[in-house]
Design brief:
There is one protein chain. This protein is an alpha/beta fold and 349 residues long. The protein has two domains: 3-151 and 327-346, Rossmann fold; 168-325, 3-Layer(aba) Sandwich (Rossmann fold). The chain has helices at residues 16-29, 46-63, 79-89, 102-105, 111-118, 129-137, 183-186, 222-228, 247-252, 259-266, 280-285, 298-303, 307-325, 328-340; strands spanning 3-5, 34-35, 69-74, 93-98, 123-126, 143-146, 168-173, 194-199, 214-218, 233-236, 271-274, 289-292. Helix 2 (46-63) runs parallel beside helix 3 (79-89). It is globular and about 60 Å long.
């Protein structure tokens, strides 16, 4: 039985979404899958990248054979339907790993259009149980397996925690502009008995009133962040409110797995996450952090956290980090989906 995946041109490898996709390609390669397209490239010229990806897609369509399995990573723009239909014509089957649902964030597809598109895949690997339920409620007919959390590959090792400073340091990495995450600026009056360190682009210090507990580090590549991050928690939050994750991005948190969560874990940082986020269940079940209803609670929660409680979370994070570094969760999800379709011998975790 032949197992394939399709590589493509990635314009920007520092992008979180592309990092997740290239990690999965590497994991698939090491689990016995073969790249059916052209080799992975990183060409920033849009026309050249388009041509290379198109050539890879055409090569894949010609090469796929009866009884073979092809893993696609979604979204794949205009090529997804074409490849799925061609694979079916040639007797192949498609497993689609979902990274992003366009009907949620960008609105370029309606929900019904996206579900109809995804139903062209035989199997789906989705972020979590809440995304699975949402897809089924809206008409998904594919066999589904859940990822739980994105793996995160890096050869870098985190720093050892230093306990000389009695106050906690919370790290936030991501888009820092007021337009994208206004909560960062509204949180200032509540950052009292902890430090708040920000990594990313677009931060406007002029909008703050000078809280000395804020520390802006600028954009740092993920490998460097893993090696240098000096903190106690990683914050998973989005939107313009500190009382909940509001707006489009807040609603999306109820169903998706933010890649930054995996980055924090690879930094050996326990997680602070909105209690209604889909990943809150994973954080709670594995005791790797704290689930909160509002950011206004942070001071009181941290004040009541014992060293023993924190050390237990940190220890669990280190174990999950080890799994993320080895591609455990992608491998497990693939194994589960193959078992569901009666071909469990095709991959071992």
């Amino acid at each position: 039985m032949k197992k394939y995946y399709l590589s493509k041109n990635y314009v920007n490898l520092s992008n979180a979404g592309n990092k997740a996709k290239t990690d999965i390609e590497f994991i698939l390669l090491n689990r016995g899958f073969t790249n059916i397209g052209l080799r992975q490239t990183c060409i920033k010229n849009e026309l050249s990248g388009f041509i290379l990806t198109l050539m890879g897609v055409l090569k894949a369509c010609i090469s796929i054979s009866e009884g073979s399995w092809l893993v696609l990573q979604y979204p794949l723009k205009k090529y997804f339907l074409f490849i799925c239909k061609f694979a079916r014509l040639r007797g192949g089957k498609v497993i689609t790993i979902i990274h992003d649902l366009g009907s949620f964030r960008k609105g370029r597809l309606t929900v019904s259009q996206e579900i109809k598109r995804l139903n062209n895949a035989n199997c789906l690997i989705v972020h979590n149980k809440k995304m699975e339920s949402w897809l089924k409620e809206h008409g998904s007919t594919s066999t589904i397996s859940c990822l739980e959390i994105f793996d995160y590959l890096s050869e870098k090792s985190p720093k050892k925690i230093i306990d000389a400073d009695p106050s906690f340091n919370i790290i936030y990495a991501g888009a820092l502009s007021y337009k994208k995450n206004a909560f960062l600026y509204k949180l200032e009056e509540y950052v009292r008995n902890f430090k708040f360190t920000l990594y990313g682009s677009g931060f406007d210090k002029e909008l703050l009133r000078g809280n000395i507990n804020y520390n802006y580090k600028g954009f740092v590549p993920s490998d460097e962040l893993i090696a240098t991050a000096d903190g106690h928690f990683g914050l998973v939050w989005d939107g313009d409110s500190i009382s909940c994750c509001s707006g489009i991005f807040g609603e999306y948190l109820k169903y998706n797995n933010p890649h930054k969560t995996s980055l924090y874990i690879r930094c050996h940082l326990p997680i602070i996450i909105w209690s209604e986020a889909a990943l809150a269940d994973f954080v709670k079940d594995n005791n790797i952090g704290i689930c909160i209803d509002s950011l206004e609670q942070i001071n009181d929660i941290l004040s009541g956290l014992s060293k023993e409680e924190y050390d237990a979370m940190r220890s669990n994070v280190v174990e999950i980090s080890r799994k993320l570094s080895q591609g455990y969760y992608v491998s497990k999800a693939l194994g589960e989906v193959f078992c569901k379709v009666g071909e469990g011998e095709l991959i071992k975790v």
